[in-house]
Amino acid sequence: MLDLATYFGLFFAAFGAATILPMQSEPVLVGLLLAGKFSTLLLLLVASIGNTLGSVLNWFLGRGIERFRDRKWFPVSDKALDRSTRWYQRYGKWSLLLSWMPVFGDGLTVIAGVLREPLLTFTILVFVAKAGRYLVLALVTLQIFG
Predict the structure, then answer these.
(1) Fewer beta carbons under 10 A from the terminal one: N or C of the chain?
(2) Which residue, among 48, 126, 55, has the nearest Cα to 40 in the 3D structure?
(3) Quick one: average pLDDT of 119-129?
(4) How far apart are CA 64 and CA 93, in angstroms?
(5) Which residues lie closer than 8 Å to 74 by C-beta, 6 or more apart?
(6) Taking a C-beta distance cutoff of 8 angstroms, is the pair 96, 117 a contact?
């Protein structure tokens, strides 16, 4: 039961970290890897799926956010949204391979929704980016501390 709760905790940490919430999943993953009690492959899979699904939430937010752009409470300035849009239009869907990056990556996943990137393409590219980041983190952690 405790193992299941641990994996769910990692999932929700990874999910939250991919959204606009100020969270980090890397320390959770590193701690679980160092504990040595859990399957490395399962930890990587759970973190990657959780982080990807958090980005999918951002994509859906992006799909609906445009209608609120003129509201006072809208959290992004016109200038910042326009700059991000131009950047995404310039580099296209392949820029989603940078979705693993802190702060920048979250905004990128929202912009992909605003610009109507197809969900399947979005999900595949984001999963590759997120899984790659967690894999590198696990390899470094286990190499250094393992």
Answers:
(1) N
(2) 48
(3) 98
(4) 19
(5) 68
(6) yes
Q: What angle do CA 24, 28, 30 make, to 5 degrees?
A: 115
List, for residues 60-84, the tens digit of each pLDDT value. Answer: 999 988 788 778 777 667 787 788 7
Contact 69, 117 (CB under 8 A): no
Count CA atoms within 13 Å of residue 84 on its CB side. Answer: 21
Sequence letter at residue 4? L
What number of CA atoms fall less than 13 Å from residue 122's CA on the CB side?
26
Counted residue by residue, the chain has a size of: 146
Residue 118: φ, ψ to 5°: -55, 135
Per-residue pLDDT band at 146 (split at 50, 70, 90): low
> Residue 66: CA atoms inside 13 Å, Cβ hemisphere, count?
12
Torsion angle in degrees (nearest 10) through CA of 14, 19, 24, 29 = 10
